[in-house]
């Protein structure tokens, strides 16, 4: 049947290109210097295959530290090259697997660039989200003689430990619960589920999600903090794209812990009638740096504390999975509950870890790479097709 042929095709592809069944896959990407005339010397000493060596000068002399990942992308690697071997991952969503792609790294290290793209977005510099969605619909179309695919999306955010539906039309702000349901992929079953049939449908919904986020952010904004200037993230749309910027002025935006776009796919094999359900989570995490108490006050401080707590909880979950502990503390934050099925579950999970090459980012760079190295040791359960 068409289903078996596709599975066989994939098995070959995975053997050739990538087998995501072992552990969480980690790709490391180094951002280029932001100014061409930068006088900085990069902290990245050497990149070869999956290895990256960071120079760690100290008062005792020059030191080095090496890290190993599935792949390391240097400063000059293009968006197309970063995406080039991800097709099997996208394909497997259509084959009934759950896939999770998320970006990690300090603010300004290139997470948005990888997932979405730069501000002056063109087809050439589109990020992973676009390419993944584009491929998904192209592939579904290619298979239309053998399969009928129904695609629907959800979009939620975690803000101050509350899970919020971003695709509500009436502007209501219902709080949602997270469930562990690796079989259906619907781990936030009460979030709106919107049918889509093209990449542009998804982008329209992302626009709606953005509007809802802005409404929520204004309503929740702490008035007393408006007159101050803070280094903040903002989430905005330009060219219909979901992106994150750093603002250095008063703003009505708020610091969210994470937002997640989930694409649910249900495929029916037209010959055998077999139904396959796959999903793809595209997760946008807050910057990994810990916000210092002295940098923010008021509502921003509360938000930053929630983010710090969530990222610590993520670190604890990763540490405990890496040590193969029987108890994994998923329940300590909404973020870890949301990612539960993707971390140590049966999903195929890919983390892009980002670092900045500047010497003043060295401490964050080392802590990011150490975290990523631990993530890379986390073994996933064998990925299973959801039938
Ligand atoms: P983050 O999302 O981690 O806060 P951004 O993606 O916003 O970081 O990146 C910070 C800045 O660096 C942006 O201006 C972005 O366009 C630029 N940048 C990041 N990665 C790259 C890259 N690989 N090539 C060119 N510019 C990049």
Automatic annotation (TrEMBL):
All residue ranges annotated as the Kinesin motor domain in the record: 23-378
Name assigned to this protein: Kinesin-like protein KIN-14I isoform X1
The gene coding this protein: LOC107926891
Lineage summary: Eukaryota, Viridiplantae, Streptophyta, Embryophyta, Tracheophyta
Chain positions recorded as ATP binding sites: 105-112
Source organism: Gossypium hirsutum (Upland cotton)
Similarity annotation: Belongs to the TRAFAC class myosin-kinesin ATPase superfamily. Kinesin family. KIN-14 subfamily.
């Amino acid at each position: 049947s068409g289903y078996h042929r596709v599975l066989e095709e994939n098995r070959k592809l995975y053997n050739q290109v990538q087998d995501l069944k072992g552990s969480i896959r980690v790709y490391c990407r180094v951002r280029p210097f932001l100014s061409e005339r930068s006088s900085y010397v990069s902290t990245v000493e050497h990149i070869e295959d999956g290895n990256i060596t960071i120079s760690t000068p100290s008062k005792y002399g020059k030191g080095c530290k090496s890290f190993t990942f599935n792949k390391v992308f240097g400063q000059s690697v293009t968006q197309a090259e970063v995406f080039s071997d991800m097709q099997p991952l996208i394909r497997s969503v259509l084959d009934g697997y759950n896939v999770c792609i998320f970006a990690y790294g300090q603010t300004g290290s290139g997470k948005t660039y990888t997932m979405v793209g730069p501000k002056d977005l063109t087809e050439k510099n589109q990020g992973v989200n676009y390419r993944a969605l584009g491929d998904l619909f192209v592939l579904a179309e290619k298979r239309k003689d053998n399969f009928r695919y129904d695609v629907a999306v959800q979009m939620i955010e975690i803000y101050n430990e509350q899970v919020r539906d971003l695709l509500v039309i009436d502007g209501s702000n219902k709080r949602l619960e997270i469930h562990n349901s690796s079989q259906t992929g619907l781990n936030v079953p009460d979030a709106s589920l919107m049918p889509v049939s093209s990449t542009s449908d998804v982008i329209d919904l992302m626009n709606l999600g953005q509007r809802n986020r802005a409404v929520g952010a204004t309503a929740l904004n702490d008035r007393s903090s408006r007159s101050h200037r803070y280094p903040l993230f903002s989430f905005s749309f330009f060219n219909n794209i979901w992106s994150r910027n750093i603002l250095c002025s008063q703003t009505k935006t708020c610091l969210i812990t994470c937002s997640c776009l989930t694409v649910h796919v249900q495929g029916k094999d037209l010959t055998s009638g077999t139904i396959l359900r796959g999903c793809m989570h595209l997760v946008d995490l807050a910057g990994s740096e810990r916000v210092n108490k002295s940098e923010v006050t008021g509502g921003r401080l509360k938000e930053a504390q929630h983010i710090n707590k969530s990222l610590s909880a993520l670190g604890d979950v990763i540490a405990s999975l890496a040590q193969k502990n029987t108890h994994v503390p998923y329940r300590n934050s909404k973020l870890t509950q949301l990612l539960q099925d993707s971390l140590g579950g049966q999903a195929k999970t890919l983390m892009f870890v980002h670092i900045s090459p500047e010497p003043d980012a060295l401490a964050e760079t080392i802590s990011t790479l150490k975290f990523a190295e631990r993530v890379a040791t986390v073994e996933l359960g064998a990925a299973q097709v959801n039938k």
